[in-house]
Amino acid sequence: MLENLKKEVYEANMLLPKYDLVTFTWGNVSAIDRDKGLFVIKPSGVDYETLTPDDMVVVDLDGNVVEGKLNPSSDTPTHTVLYNAFPELGGIVHTHSPWAVSFAQAGIDLPATGTTHADTFYGPVPVSDALTQAEIESDYEENTGKVIVRTFAERGIKPMDVPAVLVQDHGPFTWGATAEKAVYNAKVLEVAAEMAYHTMMLQGHGDVSVPQYLLDKHYYRKHGANAYYGQKTN
Ligand SMILES: O=C(CO)[C@@H](O)[C@@H](O)COP(=O)(O)O
User: Which candidate in 55, 119, 129, 169 is catalytic?
Assistant: First the structure.
């Protein structure tokens, strides 16, 4: 079942070590077939060196395993909540990439410090609300998804304008139209977080965000009807 999607999800997972985004097994990628209402996700705790497309697990939008011989990622309930809440999502990534995690642990939104950030994220990447003790002690991974959705709703952020979040005290989730695009966004987030850290240290005071007109220019040269970056594909 969903053999092509399993291959796609396997290949996207293998991009995480390639792009230096994971330590040990601390990350996962999934992608969804919206027509079938099923998504494919990495199994939990399996070394990237031994992973195969056949190890991928198929899950429905209630979070039930439909096919697979291995346990799905421990973060499957978070992915399930995000796919249900944000219908535009085709793929989701979670990592513990250190620069993004540093902002999550500090509880500081990742500011749009320059065009590297603005090319991909239309504004700051938010830190989520912290999970309460009750949320952590009950359905933790499901509540992690809910707190992400709540944060975007409270702050009026559209998920495809800023396809990333920093879960307070935990780390980044990114997403996109496909699994590969979600991995791309995870790498941009990590690079932008490292640059932002150095920018903040060097500048040493006050706001390091670019002005709105530069954010607009760089985001919309790559997104929407008037985008002109790159090559025409047809
Ligand atoms: O957050 C964590 C661990 O703290 C997990 O996301 C990470 O280790 C990946 O787990 P899985 O191997 O996908 O179950």
Answer: 119
